[in-house]
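Posting this for the archive.
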Amino acid sequence: MGGCSSSNNQPIKENGLKIKGQASNEKEQSKPIEAKIVLLGEQYVGKSSIAQRFCKNLFTGQYVVTIGGAYLQQKIVLSNGVTIKFHIWDTGGQERFRSMANLYYRDASAAILVYDVSNDKSFENINYWVEELNSKCDSDKLVLALAGNKCDIESNEKKIQASFSKSTFSLI
């Protein structure tokens, strides 16, 4: 399915998404495109909140520790009728769970690297995930996205500005 695959099936690009195989008939074309997405980052940055909002349109504001990882699914239908089924893995951000992360990002199409805009250490630690993914995944096949979370806080609480994160991440 993605850039951290151990199989020999080569994903192809279609509509900007990486998918396996090519539909050869109408029945296969009606099957949804499937993409595995993994959320990575330090604890308390809001990975679970992002996943819950996207999959269930739910935000509670309460913090619940993710032990190891959590799995969610979401289907969307594009304007051209194509259905995309997202398999979303929300990983635990505590350091003790880092050794398990490769179980979640294996075969991923994309990784969303999440940091808290009010916590500069969470932004600095994004480098760990970039290096981890670059060393264990085919970077030509894995899409990396950077997400600054908790942007709705007061401006004086923000330690990482969007312009800084964009310029820094583009250098990686």
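Strands lie at 11-14, 17-20, 33-40, 69-77, 83-91, 110-116, 143-149. Helices lie at 26-29, 47-56, 101-105, 120-124, 126-136, 162-170.
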